[in-house]
């Protein structure tokens, strides 16, 4: 059974940092692109970042460009999202995504 498990969310301060992790189990991880999405209350789920299978190519939403960094460790089947310079509008549930598979999400709340 394939599982994606996010962790690292919580309460952050505006201007501060948080690091999210997503561990993938049950299938090959190293040959797949990975993505992070987020969903704020009352809003649709939106794309945050994508990383290629090798980690050599990344794409970011304009709203997080220059503040967030996606990375991966294929030996650990883990993808990360380093979030710096947090803003209140970053408050959302963050989900990692692999093809049609989703994790359960991790809540990030940014206080100003």
What is the oligomer described by this structure? Answer: single chain
Report on the biggest sheet. 7 strands, mixed
Count of separate DSSP helical elements = 0
- Residue stretches low in confidence (pLDDT < 50, at least 5 long) are none
Total number of beta strands? 11
Give the N-to-C terminal Cα separation: 40 Å
Radius of gyration: 13 Å
Q: Which structural category do the helix and sheet elements fall into?
A: mainly beta
Helix coverage percent = under 10%
Overall average pLDDT: 96
Percent strand equals: over 45%
Which shape, going by the Cα principal axes?
globular
Topology overview:
Layout: E1 3-7, E2 10-13, E3 18-25, E4 34-39, E5 46-51, E6 58-60, E7 68-73, E8 78-83, E9 92-98, E10 101-102, E11 106-111
Parallel strand pairs: 2-11
Antiparallel strand pairs: 1-3, 3-8, 4-5, 4-9, 5-6, 7-8, 9-10, 9-11
Polypeptide structure, described:
This protein is mainly beta. 0% of the residues lie in helices and 53% in strands. The protein contains no helices and eleven strands. Strands 2, 4, 5, 6, 9, 10 and 11 form a seven-stranded mixed sheet that branches. Strands 1-3-8-7 form a four-stranded antiparallel sheet, with no helix packed on it. The mean pLDDT is 96.
Short description:
The protein has 112 residues and is an all-beta fold. The chain has no helices and eleven strands.
Features:
single chain; 112 residues; mainly beta; seven-stranded mixed beta sheet; four-stranded antiparallel beta sheet; 11 strands; globular
């Amino acid at each position: 059974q394939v599982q994606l498990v996010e962790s690292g969310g919580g309460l952050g301060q505006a201007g501060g940092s948080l690091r999210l992790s997503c561990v993938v189990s049950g299938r090959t991880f190293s040959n797949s692109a990975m993505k992070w999405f987020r969903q704020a209350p009352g809003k649709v789920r939106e794309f945050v970042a994508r990383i290629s299978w090798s980690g050599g190519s990344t794409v970011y939403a304009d709203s997080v460009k220059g503040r967030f960094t996606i990375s991966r460790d294929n030996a650990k089947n883990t993808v990360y999202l380093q979030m710096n310079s947090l803003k209140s509008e970053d408050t959302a549930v963050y989900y990692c995504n692999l093809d049609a598979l989703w994790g359960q999400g991790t809540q990030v709340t940014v206080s100003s």
